[in-house]
Amino acid sequence: NVTIANNVSIGENCYIQSGVVLQEYTHIGNNVTIQSGAIIGGDAFYFKKNEDGFKKWRSGGRVIIEDRVDIGAACTISKGVSGDTIIGEGSKLDCQVHIGHGVVVGKNCLFAAQVGIGGKTIIEDNVTLYGQVGVAQSIRIGTGAIVLAKSGVSKTLAGSKTYFGAPAIEARQYYREMAAVRILAKKR
User: What percent of the chain has a predicted confidence (pLDDT) above 90?
Assistant: First the structure.
């Protein structure tokens, strides 16, 4: 019960579970696992507003899944509009992760459940996004960054730091601000 469209390539030693959809021009490397219900290469959520509402733009890119990637159940990875969506070697996606059009995910990234990444965002190597992190479109998250659960990333983040909140800021700063608010509340 796997659907494989035209011009799809699948590497060696891949495990693709039932209900997976691989849309046209998807490229899957070696030793990739894709769990049930994942949709790889769906059209981008890309519309132009006009007088009559919205006109859908054609998605002309591909999805490239590099070697040793694990993709959880019910993930959706949109193909790029004019370029490719890339999931880097060794990256791991939990269930129900959404990757927007033209996103580039580096090597050895870890995304927990319900992470959503807007189109054309670049995620560098070794980035961890915990559950329900939302990432805006067209930004960059630096190498080794960690974004804690339920955070909202609305601007580019430097690497090798831990972030929290909505909008996401360095976690240490966020915790200091929250402690100050508690102290102020007690003084009233």
Answer: 87
